[in-house]
Amino acid sequence: MQINKISHNNELLEHIHIHHKHLSVKIFPKLGGSVQELMVNGTQILDGISIDESGLADYKNSYKSAVLFPFPNRVKDGAYQYKESLYQLGINEKPLNNALHGLVFDKTFQLTGSELLEERAKLELTYKSDGKLPGFPFRFKLKLIYRISFKGGLSLTLKIKNTDTHTFPYGMGWHPYFRTDDLASALISIPAQDFYSSDNRGLPREPVPADIAPEFKLDDKNFDDAFSLKIPRCDFKTDTYDVSLGFKYPEGTYLQVYTPPHRKNIAIEPMTCLANSFNNKIGFSELAPKKSDTWRINLFYITKS
Question: What CATH number did the domain enclosing 191 receive?
Answer without folding.
Answer: 2.70.98.10
